[in-house]
Design a protein that fits this description.
single chain, 7-stranded mixed sheet
């Protein structure tokens, strides 16, 4: 694959887990930070990756403005490290796949098979809404909403509850500026 791409334009692979991250055109510094060890269900055999390298949050800093965005998809456990990352962010994009644990079946219930622990629910004990409430200084946005999530309905009680906590669910196509 690389040989085919090299014929069109030279490129260099950037290791997202490298210390200091990497710089994108336009002055954005992207740093990937391992925040969990849950192996995804689609991986047939555990590949030799360092402990906690399966679940990754991305810290994106705009060198011009100093703004920091944190993107935390597929979080199965909200850790102190994730709290620290949120505390320094101006904007947090958090996984909102499931509104409640029951919605995801085995995907969010502890001990319910291989998929357990890959997406924290928004509500309930250990839910992301409570974790995000500790970071009132950041703009907080749910992303990656599952098709059964009631947050998709702008007029639902679920959406009203999240909005009352100051967390947003944006319309498709919304662009963020740091």
């Amino acid at each position: 694959m690389r040989a085919a791409l090299d014929r069109h334009a030279p490129w260099e692979w950037a290791d997202g887990l490298a210390d200091g991250g990497f710089v994108l055109a336009g002055g954005l510094v992207v740093t990937a930070i391992p925040v969990g060890a849950k192996v995804p269900a689609y991986v047939p055999v555990q590949a030799p990756l360092p402990e906690r390298a399966w679940v990754t949050a991305y810290r994106i800093e705009d060198l011009a403005s100093g703004g920091v965005l944190l993107y935390a998809p597929c979080v199965g456990v909200w850790s102190a490290e994730l709290d620290d990352l949120c505390a320094e962010a101006d904007c947090v994009l958090a996984d909102g796949t499931y509104f409640a644990a029951e919605e995801g079946g085995t995907a969010v219930r502890a001990g319910a098979g291989r998929a357990a622990g890959t997406h924290l629910p928004v509500t309930g004990p250990g839910g992301t809404l409570g974790a995000l409430a500790r970071h009132l200084g950041a703009r907080r946005i749910y992303t990656h909403l599952g098709h059964t999530n009631p947050l998709l309905d702008p007029f639902s009680p679920a959406r009203a509850r999240v909005a009352a906590e100051g967390v947003e669910v944006l319309a498709d196509g919304t662009e963020l500026v740091l």
